Amino acid sequence: MIRFSGVSKTYPNGVQGLRDVSFHIPKGQFVFLTGHSGAGKSSILSLIIAEQQPTFGEVRVSGYQCGKLSANEVPRLRRKLGIVFQDFRLLEYRTIEENVAFALEVTGAPRQAIPSRVIRVLTRVGLASKAKAYPKELSGGEQQRVAIARALVNDPPILIADEPTGNLDERATRGIFQLLQQINGGGTVVVMATHNLALVRDTGYRVIELKGGEVVFDSGQDTPAAGPA
Amino acid sequence: MRLTTPLGEALKTFRRAPLLSGLSVATIGFSLFTIGLFGLVALNFRQTLRTLAERVEVVAFVLRGTPTETITAASQDIQAFPEVLEVQYVSEEQALSRAREELVEFKEAYRDLETNPLPASLEIRLKEGFRDAGSAQGVAERIRGFAFIDDVRYGRDWVQRLDRLRTMAAVVGLVIGLAFAIVAMVIIGVTIRMTVLQRAHEIAIMRLVGATNRYIRGPFLLEGGIKGVLGGLLAVLMCWITFAVFRSTAGELGGSLVFFHAAHLGLIVLFGLGIGLLGSLLSVGRHLRHV
User: Fold this and answer.
1) B50 at the A interface (CB within 8 A)?
2) What is the rounded CA–CA span in Å between residue B61 and residue B119?
3) CB-based burial of residue A82 (10 Å sphere; 0-12 exposed, 13-18 middle, 19+ buried)?
4) By residue range, what is the domain housing residue B170?
5) How many Å separate Cα B179 from the centre of its chain?
């Protein structure tokens, strides 16, 4: 599903984000990207979602070669990805259901099918009762669930989560993590960047640790899809 | 559940950010108003020049004793010149009575005359577009070719001055008009860019969930177009109010002032629409290239 082959990324200001990074994430895998701030976690995610292009090497995601996408192909790739950020990135003036529906509208989904799909995904993340609320009326954990619902509503084969629990308390963190586990249980690849080592420990999921833009540890190199131990 | 449409999204912006939207419309309105005011001045100046130009006339004095039939035939020939609008024959008697009427201070002198010193003449008015020194001179030259013509006058210096004034007005009008238009476009462009930046967060989310650039541009283009049309209508309204106030306070001069035709007004609104669409297209395009 995701393959990095000898990928380096140097930013225009000269900062080296990644150095010769290679890994393969097969279908159905849950992968943690760990490391300190600036280790290269976000660089990897931004290459996967084609926000950046690699300076050297090749990034392949769902059959797309991310470094060589035309302007028209980038949206097509992103429709195959669900993306969740630490800061939720919800539209404040839209209700929860409108925020989720928005992701379907922009992809040109049939309009009559949108309400039922939105309710289904909100039920899945446990927020069906708050469909008419606005983001500001929800807790941080709930807002992140909305972001996850929005990421899932297009049934993407891959979910990318950049520090999704970074702004949440312990309880909300556990809740979000359990939700991501459930999503992965349905066959979706989950790539989660985090520096919360307590969360990573004992899960049995694959861990790719980065330091100074290099992969310094990979618990599951060339292993097939792996669920919790 | 309310689903969005590009038009709905565009209209929502006015509700969500009424101050910024109002400012955008006002900026477009005032910018177009400046151009409109300049246009009004130019229009009235051109109208004045046109009125002045109507007085451009070639007068051909006829030798005494020329038979009326000869003059009539020649008049018809002259009337057929492409530059000529109208040929009027003024007999010696008509010239004298006109002089008595018009030159009041010489009334006594004209009354005591035993013989009429004034010659008959052909007064030739030129068509619009030929009321310049070159055309007048061309017509004068050809009329001089008639044997019974004694002399031809067309106020050469005056017509040349009018020509210079016309050229100067056109050049100054074009330069100032263009400068106003460019300034207006820059101001409007900056205003639209502000609205795009205000919604940068939303654009980023749209891209994240896989919206195409075309989808993102849609509501912005509509919003820019609506703001442009509203700004254009505001400019038309302000021009009309300014014109009405000026005309009512300008006394006698006010009566001769002219306002835009409907086509001109339509052009201002259309210009607003164009500038709104173009400004949005450029601003969003630029933004999309850099995020």
Assistant:
1) no
2) 6
3) buried
4) 6-51+163-290
5) 17
**A217-222 contact pairs (CB < 8 A, 24+):** A218/A23, A220/A29, A220/A31, A221/A23, A222/A24
Q: State how many domains chain B has.
A: 2
Inter-chain residue contact A79 with B206, CB threshold 8 Å = no
Residue B135 CA to residue B139 CA, distance in Å, equals 6
- Inspect the interface and report whether the beta carbons of A102 and B213 lie closer than 8 Å: no
The Cα–Cα gap between B101 and B83 comes to 30
Is B26 inside a domain boundary? yes
Interface predicted TM-score (ipTM) of this complex, two decimals? 0.81
> Which CATH number characterizes residue B112's domain?
3.30.70.3040
**What confidence tens digit (pLDDT) does each residue in A177-224 have?**
999 999 999 999 999 999 888 888 878 899 999 999 999 999 886 544
Final residue before a domain boundary, out of B109, B134, B153: B153
Nearest to A101 among B3, B16, B213 (CB): B3
Helix (H) or strand (E) holding A18: strand A16-25
Nearest residue to B21 (alpha-carbon basis) of B163, B169, B234: B234
CB contact under 8 A, B208 and A83: yes
Per-residue pLDDT 10s for chain B (291 aa) are: 777 777 887 788 788 788 888 888 998 899 889 889 888 888 888 888 888 888 888 999 988 888 888 888 888 989 999 999 999 999 888 888 888 777 777 767 766 677 778 888 999 999 888 888 888 889 999 988 888 888 898 877 888 888 888 888 889 888 988 888 888 778 777 877 888 888 888 888 888 888 888 888 888 889 889 999 999 999 999 999 999 998 888 877 777 888 999 999 999 999 999 988 888 888 888 888 766
> Helix A96-105 to helix A114-124 angle, to the nearest 10 degrees?
120
Q: Residue with structure tokens 């992809």?
A: A107
Chain A residues within 8 A of B2 when measuring between CB atoms: 98
Question: CA A2 to CA A190: how far, in whole Å?
Answer: 11
Residues B230 and B286 in one domain: yes
Cross-chain Cβ contact B4/A105 below 8 Å: yes
Put simply, the chain B residues between 1 and 20 with a CB less than 8 A from any chain A CB are 1-4, 16
Q: Does B249 touch chain A (CB under 8 A)?
A: no
